[in-house]
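Renewal narrative, Specific Aim 1. Our central claim is that a sequence can be written position by position from structural information alone. The example that follows is taken directly from our test logs and has not been curated for this report. It begins with the structure tokens describing the chain, in the order in which they were read.
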């Protein structure tokens, strides 16, 4: 008899997405790994790769580099099918730096087996990070406004 496939719902996704986090600690992302397809595609403003193993390696690097990370979800949506969107703020303290909020959104595609096959993060790493440094943040925002439009 065929194994029953798990259907991804907004409620289930929120439970999965938030499972690693708790304020005042570094998350344990290992709870996410079983929900990612072995050949998933990950892409953000820093990197792009294919496969669950590189995803695990990225998460482990993040865990080592940070003294604290937590996530706040502002909204979640589903296109009626297998595409989900999550709007979030991830607050991060890289070792020796103050807590810095990074605002972003994620698109997740889920396959017919309920596994995440595409994880695409959208965020302004440099703007949000440099805003925490008074002079650099103002210079960056000036540059973006006056040079980039």
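The sequence written for that structure reads:
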């Amino acid at each position: 008899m065929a194994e029953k496939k798990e259907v991804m719902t907004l409620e289930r996704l929120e439970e999965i997405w938030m499972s690693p986090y708790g304020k005042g600690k570094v998350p344990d992302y290992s709870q996410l790994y079983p929900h990612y397809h072995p050949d998933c595609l990950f892409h953000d403003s820093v990197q792009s790769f294919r496969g669950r193993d590189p995803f695990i390696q990225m998460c482990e690097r993040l865990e080592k580099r940070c003294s604290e990370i937590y996530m706040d979800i502002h909204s979640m949506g589903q296109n009626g099918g297998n595409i989900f969107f999550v709007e979030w703020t991830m607050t991060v303290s890289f070792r020796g730096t103050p807590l810095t909020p990074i605002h972003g959104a994620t698109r997740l595609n889920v396959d017919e087996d309920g596994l995440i096959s595409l994880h695409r993060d959208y965020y302004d790493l440099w703007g949000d990070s440099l805003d925490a440094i008074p002079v650099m943040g103002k210079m960056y925002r000036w540059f973006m406004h006056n040079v980039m439009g």
